[in-house]
Specification:
It contains 10 helices and 8 strands. It is α/β, with parallel strands linked by helices and about 240 residues long. Helix 4 links the parallel strand 3 and strand 4. The mean pLDDT is about 95.
Length: about 240
C-alpha cells in the first residue's frame, strides 16, 4: 500500500483528532478508498513539551523517537506531528529516520504565501516553550516574516491559560482567553495571526477574525493540507496546495 501517513499524536488527544478530521476534509475524495491510509500513534503520556524546553530538558525526545520508530515499523512512509512544540526536536527526530517528517512551520509558511502574505509581521499564538525556543521565528525569518508574540503577562494569563482550558475540556473559557490575546496582537498591524499550538484551532477557527483586516492562519489545517499533498504526490496524483 502506497502513501501511508503516520501521525505522531496524543499531544493532546483532542488536537490529534482535530488534525485527522482536517486531513479528511482536505482530501479530494468521493469514496472511502480515496482517503489517506493513516497509522496513528497517540500517547498522551509524552512529558510536557513546553515545560521541558523551558527547563532545559530533553525528556520528551525519547518518547517521540520511540513513536516514530513504531510508526516506521508499522509501514508509515511519512510522518506528521500535530504538536507545534514537539517540532523543537525536529532535527533529532529526522536524523534517525529514512522517511520524511512534515514540518508544521513550513506548512504554515506555505499557506501564508498561498493567500498572498509573503512578508511582514504576523502574530503568533503558541505555547511559551514554542515561543521561547523560536520554533516559528527561526524558520519564518528566513522567508521574510517577523513573528510578534504576546508580552509575558498576556502570554501567561491568556495564551497559556487558554491552552490549558482547552486541554481540560473547557472550550468556552479557552476561546474567551485566546480571543483576547489575538485581539491584542491584531492592534499591532499583523497581517495574519498564526495559531501555532494545535489546541488553539479547536476554539479559534480560520473563518473567524480577531479584527477587521486580520485573519487566523490555522497551522493544524496547513499541516493537514501538506499531508494530503504529500500523499497525492506519493501516489501519483495532483497536489492541492493553497486550496480552500
Amino acid at each position: 500500500m502506497k502513501g501511508v501517513l503516520g501521525i505522531l499524536g496524543g499531544m493532546g488527544p483532542l488536537a490529534t483528532v482535530d488534525f485527522m478530521q482536517k486531513v479528511i476534509e482536505a482530501t479530494p475524495a468521493t469514496r472511502d478508498q480515496d482517503h489517506i491510509p493513516l497509522l496513528v500513534h497517540a500517547v498522551p503520556q509524552v512529558p510536557d513539551r513546553a515545560e521541558a524546553i523551558l527547563t532545559g530538558s530533553d525528556e520528551p525526545l525519547a518518547w517521540l523517537q520511540e513513536g516514530t520508530k513504531i510508526l516506521r515499523a508499522a509501514g508509515a512512509e511519512a510522518i506528521a506531528i500535530p504538536c507545534n512544540t514537539a517540532h523543537y526536536w525536529y532535527d533529532n527526530l529526522t536524523s534517525e529516520l529514512d522517511i520524511p517528517v512534515l514540518h508544521i512551520v513550513d506548512a504554515a509558511a506555505a499557506q501564508l504565501q498561498s493567500i498572498g502574505i509573503t512578508n511582514g509581521t504576523v502574530g503568533l499564538l503558541a505555547t511559551k516553550g514554542t515561543v521561547a525556543a523560536g520554533v516559528y521565528q527561526k524558520r519564518f525569518e528566513k522567508l521574510g516574516f517577523t513573528c510578534l508574540a504576546p508580552g509575558d503577562a498576556l502570554q501567561s494569563d491568556n495564551v497559556t491559560a487558554g491552552i490549558a482550558a482547552v486541554k481540560a475540556g473547557d472550550l468556552q473559557s479557552g476561546r474567551v482567553l485566546l480571543e483576547a490575546a489575538a485581539r491584542n496582537l491584531a492592534q499591532h498591524n499583523c497581517k495574519s495571526i498564526v495559531l501555532g499550538c494545535t489546541e488553539i484551532p479547536i476554539v479559534l477557527t480560520a473563518d473567524m477574525s480577531p479584527a477587521p483586516g486580520t485573519g487566523y492562519l490555522d497551522a493544524t489545517q496547513a499541516l493537514a493540507r501538506a499531508a494530503v499533498d504529500w500523499h497525492l504526490q506519493a501516489t501519483g496524483k495532483p497536489e492541492i496546495s493553497g486550496t480552500v
